[in-house]
Amino acid sequence: MLRLNRFIPALIGCAVLFGGVFVAFAQDGSYTVVTGDSLDKVGAIYDVQPACLAKANNIGLGDLLKPGQVLTISFDCPLYDGVDNITTPREVNKNVSEGLGQGGGGGATSTPYQVQRGDSLDSIGQTLNVSVVSLQQANALEAGAILQPGQEITIPAGAPPFGQVPASTNTSGDAGQGGGGAPAASTTSAPDLKNGDATYVVQYQDTLDSIGAQYEVKVLCLVSENKIADQTKIYPGQTLSIKTSCPRYDGFDFVINPREGS
C-alpha cells in the first residue's frame, strides 16, 4: 500500500500535465518548447504545417528551438504535411455534408471543403456524392490535379451527383472518364420549351437512341430539334431539348417513360 501511495502524486501530475496540453491545443493556441522539439515535431502534435508555424512565429523553418520558447499555434495554418505521426488529427470538414443536396449533388449554396491528406477530386466526389467535373469547374482545376493538405476548395451549389456531368456546351468530347476535363460554361440561350417539353444533359455512355427511348421521342426528331450534325456524336454535358411535338420513339430499346395519350 505504501508503494502504491508513492505513485499516486506522480500519476496526478501526469494527468495535470496532459490536461494542460489539451487545453493549450483547444484554447490557448500556444506551445512551450521542451528538449528535443523541432517545428516538424510540434507541427505533427497539432496537425499544423511546419512552414506555417515558422511564419507565424517569425523564425526560419530550419531554426533550432530552445526549451522554454513559446510558439504560437495558428489553426488557420494548413494541415501538417510531413512524415511524422500526427498526435491529434484536426477535424476540419465536420459539417460539410449538412449543406449538400438530398440524394447527392451540391446544395442550395456553395460549401467550402478543406483538403485532407490523401484526398483527390475523385475521392472527394465519391465521399460527398458530388460530380467531379463540377468540382473541377468550380475550382478551375485540370483533370488529375494534385491537391495539397489544407487547400480549400468549393463544393458548388446545384452540382449533380457523383458520376454525372453538369450542363455544358463543350463539344470537344474531352470531358474525360470519371470526371476529367473541364467543360466550358454554357453560352447558348435556353431552348424554346413549351408545356411538357424538357431538357436533358447528356451523360457518359448515352446515345441518342437511349435518350429517345428514355423520353419516348423519335431519334430523328431529336437530331432535327437540336441541330445535331452527326447523330453518332453527342458529348457528356451537352444539353438537348426534348420536344413533346416529336413523334414517338420507333426504335428497339425499352421505353422507360411511356408518354400519355394515343
Structure description:
The chain is α+β, with helices and mostly antiparallel strands and 262 residues long. It folds into 3 domains: 2-72, Roll (Membrane-bound Lytic Murein Transglycosylase D, Chain A); 96-155, Roll (Membrane-bound Lytic Murein Transglycosylase D, Chain A), CATH 3.10.350.10; 188-262, Roll (Membrane-bound Lytic Murein Transglycosylase D, Chain A), CATH 3.10.350. 28% of the residues lie in helices and 8% in strands. The chain contains 7 helices and 6 strands. The chain has helices spanning 2-28, 39-46, 50-56, 121-128, 132-139, 208-215, 219-225, and strands spanning 30-32, 70-72, 111-114, 152-155, 198-201, 239-242. The chain has a two-stranded antiparallel sheet. Strands 3-4 form a two-stranded antiparallel ribbon. Helix 2 (39-46) crosses helix 3. The relative contact order is 0.09. The model is unreliable at 1-28 and 173-193 (pLDDT under 50).
Classify the beta-strand content into a percent band: 5-15%
CATH architecture of the largest domain: Roll
Global geometry: rod-shaped
Biggest sheet strand order reads 1-2
Q: The biggest beta sheet, please?
A: 2 strands, antiparallel
CATH homologous superfamily placement of the largest domain: LysM domain
Provide the gyration radius in Å.
28 Å
Mean pLDDT rating? 78
Content-based structural category: alpha+beta
Number of helices: 7
First CA to last CA: what distance? Answer: 95 Å
Ranges where pLDDT stays below 50 over 5 or more residues in a row are 1-28, 173-193
**Count of distinct structural domains:** 3
Multimeric organization: single chain
Assign the CATH class of the largest domain.
Alpha Beta
CATH fold title of the largest domain: Membrane-bound Lytic Murein Transglycosylase D, Chain A
Number of strands: 6
| H and E string | HEHHEEHHEEHHE
Q: Share of helix among residues?
A: 25-40%
